[in-house]
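Thread amino acids onto this structure.
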């Protein structure tokens, strides 16, 4: 049973030293009981207390790693809240694409290469598919091993190895265990053998059983065999059952501290989908509620891209907007007669403006002002993007040394700042740009000589 905050407090040193980041030991104990702090933050806790507090300090959902290296490694679990607005979600789910070993060698190699090569940049972040799930659909060991080799040759993709036969799985792990693939899957028929393989090759293993109770019971069985890194597949494949079961698992782990439910979840949104569009919709639902690894049936950039951006949005800390470093940015190769635009340091705003300025075909200077990561209107309303701040940015950035003119373009949404800016920057001509970034190309063609 989970310890209460008072139970934990009794085991702490009670020095109120504040080195844990909390004002008192009691406050720290309450954070521990709510899974919002780690016991390691207390430098004075005794070894005896550490043993007693192990259950209280353990994350409610285990952090499981699939793959190696920094590129495509999937780290899922260790979440502490049901809804991102309560705090944030930490470890974004990994997208992997299923490839069957019954496909031709060329098709396997080409698909894996396309997945490895695909990537998009959005607000300064590189978005990619995490890996490939190789399925032993042929039931043939040689075909499976060849498919795994072809996928591995394509790049640094994380692997999910899918076979119900422990002998086939062992042969594949003997060649690929160094890349730390996910073993899929331990079932009621092969749980002991798959658990032994997970221990032998030091790889995570997925447990698959129909329904919440069966899946958690099987996870407990595999855990008792000594395996810590477990991923759950509760067998749900539709919209309603996925939403209900995945939410119940998350609630059991976080609210009830039910350890057999405290593992990341793997889903297969395409197995019962009637169309690629339906698979994409279900995958989006499962990313929001609460998948850790999402196995897609096909690789199609037109459906992968919206899923990547959805994941990025959900797993961005709502309390910390994505920000650009304030300063001067160059669009193209601007010279002394190039335009100077002003905007805020909210990443989405920056990339929207930068993209349209680049599209205008006129090299320009972009003066990014510190607005604490807020967009133009939000920052203006909050008093974080005003004439004083823009003027200070212009004076301290050195932009005056880079241009021979004295013209500066402010966003149209803050046109009311023009008069104040003329007082602050008396030697500059303040130009009011368009309200929307998309209108920048036509604006600059009309107004810039």
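Threaded sequence (449 positions):
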């Amino acid at each position: 049973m989970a310890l209460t905050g008072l139970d934990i407090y009794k085991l702490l040193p009670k020095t109120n030293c504040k080195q844990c980041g909390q004002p008192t030991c009691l406050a720290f104990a309450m954070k521990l009981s709510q899974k919002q702090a780690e016991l390691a933050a207390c430098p004075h806790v005794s070894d005896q207390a550490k043993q007693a507090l192990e259950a209280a300090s353990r994350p409610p959902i285990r952090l499981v790693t699939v793959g190696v290296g920094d590129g495509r490694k999937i780290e899922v679990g260790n979440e502490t809240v049901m809804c991102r607005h309560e705090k944030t979600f930490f470890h974004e789910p990994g997208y992997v694409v299923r490839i069957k070993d019954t496909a031709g060698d060329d098709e396997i190699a080409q698909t894996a290469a396309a997945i490895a090569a695909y990537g998009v940049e959005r607000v300064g972040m590189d978005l990619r598919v995490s890996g490939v799930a190789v399925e032993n659909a042929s039931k043939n060991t040689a075909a499976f091993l060849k498919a795994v080799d072809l996928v591995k040759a394509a790049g640094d993709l994380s692997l999910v190895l899918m076979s119900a036969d422990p002998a086939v799985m062992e042969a594949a792990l003997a060649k690929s265990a160094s890349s730390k693939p996910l073993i899929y899957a331990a079932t009621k028929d092969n749980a002991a053998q798959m658990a032994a393989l997970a221990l032998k090759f030091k790889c995570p293993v997925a447990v698959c059983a129909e329904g919440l109770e069966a899946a958690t019971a099987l996870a407990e069985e595999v855990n008792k065999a000594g395996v810590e890194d477990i991923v759950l597949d509760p067998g749900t494949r539709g919209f309603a059952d996925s939403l209900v079961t995945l939410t119940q698992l998350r609630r059991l782990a976080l609210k009830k501290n039910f350890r057999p439910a405290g593992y990341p979840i793997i889903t297969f949104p395409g197995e019962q989908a009637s169309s690629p569009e339906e698979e994409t919709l279900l995958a989006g639902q499962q990313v929001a509620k609460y998948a850790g690894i999402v196995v897609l049936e096909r690789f199609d950039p037109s459906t992968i891209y919206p899923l990547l951006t959805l994941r990025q949005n959900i797993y961005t800390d709502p309390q910390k907007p994505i920000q650009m470093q304030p300063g001067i940015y160059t669009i193209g190769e601007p010279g002394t007669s190039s335009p100077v635009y002003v905007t805020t340091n909210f990443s989405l705003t920056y990339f929207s403006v930068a993209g349209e300025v680049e599209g205008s075909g006129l090299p320009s200077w972009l003066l990014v002002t510190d607005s604490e990561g807020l967009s133009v209107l939000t920052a203006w309303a909050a008093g974080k993007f005003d004439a004083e701040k823009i003027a200070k940015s212009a004076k301290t950035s050195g932009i005056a040394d880079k241009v021979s003119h004295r013209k500066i373009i402010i966003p149209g949404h803050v046109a009311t700042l023009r008069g104040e800016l003329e007082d602050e920057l008396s030697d500059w001509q303040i130009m009011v740009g368009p309200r929307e970034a998309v209108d920048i190309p036509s604006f600059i063609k009309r107004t810039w000589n």
